[in-house]
Amino acid sequence: MKIYTRSGDTGQASLYNGDRLYKDDAVFQALGDVDELNSALGVAASFLTNKTLLEQLEIIQSRLIDVGSAVATPLPTSPENKLQRTHFPGVVHAQQLEGWIDAMDEHLPPLKNFILPSGGRGSSALHHARSVCRRAERSVVVLSRRQTISLEVNTYLNRLSDFLFTAARFTAHSDGVPEVIYKKSS
């Protein structure tokens, strides 16, 4: 099988349910943002050494493929068998993220100030991934407001940005790199 199909050369692409849409459709915007987030996590992982965090990121990257499948299968136009195959239990996966957040939080000093994205390469890459995650979340909100995807996708991405913020802080702390405190202009 070749990687190229030429089916998108006219500016349209197919969703999992077979619908063909223009590539500037909100569905493809969301899919692209989720894909970019997955790539940002891959970059972040290349700077990390904590085995547990690396294992968690690998799980998250797989869940993001699941998120993409759910996004690519709109609720109102997809047959039941495809909806069942791509159902994303976001609340369950968000609870897993919460457990990981709580475990990292136990090792962190309380946050008393706003911090700038900083803390070394790994921490900064995780902060960047968090920003990309927020954009992906905004993209899927458009779809959930249209009721074409489950709100559980929003729940997961919202919690994922919390996880990435905490993971960035945890990485800076573990690496012994100070976080840079925001200073208000005078």
TrEMBL record:
The reaction(s) this protein catalyses: cob(I)alamin-[corrinoid adenosyltransferase] + ATP = apo-[corrinoid adenosyltransferase] + adenosylcob(III)alamin + triphosphate
Record-stated family: Belongs to the Cob(I)alamin adenosyltransferase family.
Primary role: Converts cob(I)alamin to adenosylcobalamin (adenosylcob(III)alamin), a coenzyme for methylmalonyl-CoA mutase, therefore participates in the final step of the vitamin B12 conversion. Generates adenosylcobalamin (AdoCbl) and directly delivers the cofactor to MUT in a transfer that is stimulated by ATP-binding to MMAB and gated by MMAA.
Name of this protein: Corrinoid adenosyltransferase MMAB
Domain Cobalamin adenosyltransferase-like: from-to ranges: 3-170
NCBIfam families: PduO_Nterm
A single MF term (Gene Ontology): ATP binding
Subunit structure: Homotrimer.
UniProt keyword list: ATP-binding, Nucleotide-binding, Transferase
Gene Ontology BP terms: cobalamin metabolic process
Upper lineage: Eukaryota, Viridiplantae, Chlorophyta, core chlorophytes, Chlorophyceae
